Amino acid sequence: DKKAAVITLGPKELHFKGKSQGKDYEVKLVFLNEIDDKSAETKWQVKPRNVSFFLKKKTDEWWTQLLEN
User: pTM of the predicted model, to two decimals?
Assistant: First the structure.
């Protein structure tokens, strides 16, 4: 549900809370390195069947993995 989606983005984490077909969903992701949460390139879109994210890394370095743990 587009209206129920709550997305909070910080330099090291993404928090998503939403509802679909009457069920509540929530996830918190802690990234290995920082993203540029203030960049115009960092964005997301809530669609009927999913949520898509494009997150710009703070630096161009290679990440060995996406998440901290």
Answer: 0.83
